[in-house]
């Protein structure tokens, strides 16, 4: 059950798409004074060493973050994400990659809360340890202790989410990012969102998923579109033509319920650039579509 380790995939093209969008979602949430709760149902280890045996064995980051690292023509919104990675690599050499909990820690404000769930017995320890080190470093730098800003739970994230909604401040950003190694994860995500929307219809929910040939993946976005959210935004990034054997991850998607109105124009600026820089062959492309519950209207666009 616990064969998935994100360390093999950290910083790949799918992480670039996910974490670039995560930064944008935090920045939108940061615009209002009221504090919010960030909930990460599937946190992973928080920070990844790209020279670890796992990351260097797969080398996936080479076709992801490494392709952006030395670019001097990044679109501004993408530069904001790369800056978060840079903050973790002050020497200028790309050695560490931030997972979603670290991205949240960096971009959310001191008054916002982070609620992190992880169920892998090794990754939960690494996650706790990474946050301990981070807090020690912040204390050394003379930063004020942030109290119980970050809570980490060794617990099923779908259950954890349910218990946290609605949040006290009535503002929440939720990231749902399971491994999808078991087909049931697709159903669990949909069910969790249905329940979450009942408890807290105004939350902002972001789901990452792999675009694969398997039926559950192909039907996934259509199922999410039928959830009773006021609005949704769906983006996919494909970096290569899938091979005939269907192995490897060439495409992934982010599905956002109640997205910020600013996100679609930002995606339209950044996705063509990502296709150009991360694309591996002529099959590289993107797709953006959105819809609203009120009109059922939908607009789709690719390059
Ligand atoms: N969100 C992370 C990031 O962007 O850096 C990556 C998460 S990784 C794709 C998925 C993680 O979910 C794995 O670390 C796995 O151990 C964990 N996991 C699997 N099932 C879980 C569950 N039911 N609840 C919480 N975590 C789970």
TrEMBL record:
- Where, by residue number, is the active site? 177
Q: Which UniProt keywords apply?
A: Methyltransferase, RNA-binding, rRNA processing, S-adenosyl-L-methionine, Transferase
Does the keyword Transferase feature in the UniProt annotation? Answer: yes
Q: Which reaction does it catalyse?
A: adenosine(2030) in 23S rRNA + S-adenosyl-L-methionine = N(6)-methyladenosine(2030) in 23S rRNA + S-adenosyl-L-homocysteine + H(+)
Q: What EC identifiers does the entry list? A: 2.1.1.266
> What GO CC annotations are associated with the protein?
cytosol
Q: Where does S-adenosyl-L-methionine bind?
A: 19, 42, 100, 118, 156-157, 177
Which GO MF terms does the UniProt record name?
Answer: 23S rRNA (adenine(2030)-N(6))-methyltransferase activity; RNA binding
GO terms classed as biological process: rRNA base methylation
List residue numbers at the site (Interaction with substrate rRNA).
Answer: 4
Subunit composition?
Monomer.
What family does this chain come from, according to its entry? Answer: Belongs to the RlmJ family.
What job does the chain carry out?
Answer: Specifically methylates the adenine in position 2030 of 23S rRNA.
Q: Mind telling me what this protein is named?
A: Ribosomal RNA large subunit methyltransferase J
State the taxonomy lineage.
Bacteria, Pseudomonadati, Pseudomonadota, Betaproteobacteria, Burkholderiales
Question: Gene encoding this chain?
Answer: rlmJ
Q: Which residues of the parent chain are present? A: 1 to 303 of 425
């Amino acid at each position: 059950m616990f064969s998935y380790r994100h360390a093999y995939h950290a910083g790949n093209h799918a992480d670039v798409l996910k974490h670039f969008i995560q930064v944008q979602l935090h920045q939108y949430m940061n615009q209002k004074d009221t504090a919010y709760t960030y909930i990460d149902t599937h946190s992973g280890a928080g920070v990844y060493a790209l020279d670890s045996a796992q990351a260097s064995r797969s080398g996936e980051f080479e076709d992801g973050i490494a392709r952006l690292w030395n670019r001097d023509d990044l679109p501004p919104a993408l530069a904001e994400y790369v800056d978060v990675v840079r903050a973790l690599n002050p020497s200028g050499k790309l050695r560490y990659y931030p997972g979603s909990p670290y991205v949240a820690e960096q971009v959310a404000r001191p008054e916002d809360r982070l609620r992190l769930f992880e169920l892998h017995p090794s990754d939960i320890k690494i996650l706790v340890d990474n946050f301990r080190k981070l807090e020690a470093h912040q204390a050394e730098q003379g930063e004020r202790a942030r109290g119980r800003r970050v809570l980490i739970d060794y617990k099923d994230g779908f259950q954890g989410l349910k218990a946290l909604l609605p949040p006290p401040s009535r503002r929440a950003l939720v990231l749902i990012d399971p491994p999808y190694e078991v087909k049931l994860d697709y159903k669990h995500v949909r069910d969790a969102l249905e329940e979450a929307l009942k408890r807290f219809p105004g939350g902002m929910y972001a789901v990452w998923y792999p675009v694969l040939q398997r039926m559950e993946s192909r039907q996934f976005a259509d199922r999410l579109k039928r959830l009773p959210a006021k609005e949704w935004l769906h983006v996919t990034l494909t970096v290569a033509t899938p091979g005939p054997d269907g192995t490897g991850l060439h495409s992934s998607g982010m599905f956002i319920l109640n997205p910020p109105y600013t996100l679609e124009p930002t995606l339209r600026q950044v996705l063509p650039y990502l296709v150009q820089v991360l694309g591996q062959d002529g099959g590289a492309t993107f797709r953006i579509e959105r819809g609203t519950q009120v009109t059922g209207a939908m607009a789709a666009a690719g390059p």
